[in-house]
Amino acid sequence: MDSSPYLDRYRQIGALDQQKNQLIEELLQRVTDLENSFQREKLDHERETRFNRDIQLHEMELMQQISQIKNIMDREPFVVVLLDGEGIIFKDEFLQLGEEGGRNAATQFYTAMHTYLLQNLPSVNVPKIILKLYLNVKGFTETCVRSGILADPLTVHEFIRGFNETMSYSEIIDIGSGKNRAYDKIQEMFQVFLYNCHCHQVFVGCASNTEYAQFLEDTLNDGDLTGRVSLVEGVAFDKELDAVKGSFRTAKFPEVLRSSKVAPIYVAPWKSSLPSRSLLTPSPSQQLQNPPPLSRTSTNTSASGLGAQPLAPTPNTNNEVPDFQVVRSKGSGSSPVKAVERNKYGQRVDRLDFKSIPRDDLNRLKKLKLCNYYFLLGECPNEENCYHDHDRKLTRQELHILSAIARMTPCRFGLECDDPECIYGHRCPQSEPGKKTCFRGDSCRFEPVAHGIDTNIVKVTKI
User: Fold this and answer.
1) What angle do CA 45, 51, 53 make, to 5 degrees?
2) What CA–CA distance (Å, rounded) separates 101 from 90?
3) How far apart are CA 132 and CA 138, in angstroms?
4) With contact defined as beta carbons under 8 Å apart, do 232 and 88 qualify?
5) Residue 343 Cα distances to 41, 299, 332, angstroms
6) What is the residue-averaged pLDDT of the chain?
7) Where exactly are the zinc fingers annotated as C3H1-type (predicted)?
8) Is residue 352 within 8 Å of 432, Cβ to Cβ?
9) In this structure, how many other beta carbons lie within 10 angstroms of the beta carbon of residue 280?
10) 208: closest CA among 184, 244, 176, 172?
11) Using CA atoms, how far apart are residues 307 and 421, in angstroms rounded to an integer?
């Protein structure tokens, strides 16, 4: 019997067993690979689960921190108001009341600003209002005096004191004289507050000049910042700001701030057009003829002391003057020769001994708010709108004291003044010859050169 078929069949079955074993090995390897892959996936899943849990916990912590920071940021919100005293001027009625006017101005400005914020920035919840007004106090005082708004230069200092004492976050800062000093300070403070998270709005009250226009134009380049900046308009903006002011909110407070600059009164514009002094204030003995020229430096002021209050203007309806009243007049006929007395250095010398004037009488007369123009020069260039007294009857002694009070206000021409009728001071009345200072020190309103003047008269300049 041939065995070949059996051998073939055996070989076929052996091949099948080999294939079966190979299949089993492949299956086992596959299972091993899947188990390893499963374990890796399981580990990855567990790792991701832990990571996600950690992330969630960290996120919760971050959210809590953000909430805390947000609460801190919202805890003390404020807005800052940076004002240039050249463009922001309080109305006359506040300035004239001195310390009381300063308190009223601070209160009313705060109230007006608070109302503006409620209407235009309701998202800011009752913020504090930080107000900083930068002002050349000396220059502003002289302007107010020369314009006839104030009679006493010290009234401005009283106003500032009352203003600064009223609100904890409001202050008027004396920056001294110098070009663009207010602008420089406002620009620096603007950068400080603009990026402060507690500051919700920066208000800028500026004067109309090219520096502010360029400054505001640069601010517009950052679109995210324009919503944080607003303008305060007091004195009307001029053409310099026309191009940029429309891109900002503009707040106006006409009930507190002037809309026009304070214009000093100079002699030239009105001197030739005024009626003669005889029509304004007749002398008890004679009618006045052509008015002598008024001082270039004279202003409607009486340099007064503390606590003086302005009087409302009262027209003088009675032209009769009692015998004891003294009114400076110019006699009829030829004009007398006028002269300016000077020392050996050519410096003007005022003949006036302040030590001989009783202090009580001096202080009493300061508080009367008398018109220097009217009583010392015989006429007032602003009589219809003058805030100072024209009706009081003065004795010769009182007129002498009033002339001393007027000398307490520095003449802007100083020692070089050649106006024989100038009623204001050319040397510090408190200084003594040879001493380059007085008891007021740096706070004296007279320049250092006006101290220690030689009072020996050696030369007379006739006018």
Assistant:
1) 105
2) 10
3) 18
4) yes
5) 107, 26, 32
6) 78
7) 365-393, 427-454
8) no
9) 21
10) 244
11) 29
- d(CA 399, CA 403) in angstroms, rounded, equals 6
**Claim: this prediction has a pTM higher than 0.85:** no
Q: What is the pLDDT of residues 429-438, one digit of tens each?
A: 888 888 878 8
> Which residues, including other chains, have CB under 8 Å from residue 129's CB and lie 6 or more apart?
78, 79, 81, 110, 113, 114, 117, 167, 169, 170
Separation between Cα atoms, residue 101 and residue 94, nearest integer Å? 4
Query: Pairing between strand 170-174 and 199-205?
Result: unpaired
Strands 459-462 and 339-342: antiparallel
Q: What pLDDT shows up at residue 277?
A: 34
Give Rg (Cα) of the chain: 42
User: Which token pair is 407?
Assistant: 């000398």
- In angstroms, the CA 278 to CA 291 distance is 8
- Can you read off the two tokens belonging to residue 4? 């070949």
Check residues 290 and 205 and name the one with the higher pLDDT.
Answer: 205
Domain boundaries, the chain: 75-252, 265-463
d(C-alpha 253, C-alpha 100), whole Å: 20
Q: Which residue has the tokens 């109305």?
A: 91
**Of 262, 252, 192, 194, nearest in space to 222 by CA:** 194
Between the alpha carbon of residue 164 and those of residues 106, 252, 368, the distances in Å are 8, 22, 26
Task: Please identify which residue in the block is written with the tokens 């007004």.
Answer: 133
Query: Would you state the structure tokens that stand for residue 117, as one six-digit string?
Result: 């914020």
Instruction: Map the chain to HEC letters.
Output: CCCHHHHHHHHHHHHHHHHHHHHHHHHHHHHHHHHHHHHHHHHHHHHHHHHHHHHHHHHHHHHHHHHHHHHHHHHCCEEEEEEECCCCCECHHHHCCHHHHHHHHHHHHHHHHHHHHHHHCCCCCCCEEEEEEEECHHHHHHHHHHHCCCCCCHHHHHHHHHHHHHCCCEEEEECCCCCCHHHHHHHHHHHHHHCCCCEEEEEEECCCCHHHHHHHHHHHCCHHHHCCEEEEECCCCCHHHHHHHCCCEEEECCCCECCCCCCCCCHHHHHCCCCCHHHHCCCCCCCCCCCCCCCCCCCCCCCCCCCCCCCCCCCCCCCCCCCCCCCCCCCCCCCCCCEEEECCCCCECCCCCHHHCCHHHHHHHHCCCECHHHHHHCCCCCHHHCCCECCCCCCHHHHHHHHHHHCCCECCCHHHCCCCCCCCECCCCCCCCCCCCCCCHHHCCCCHHHCCCCCCCCEEEEC
**Predicted local distance difference test score (pLDDT) of residue 8:** 84
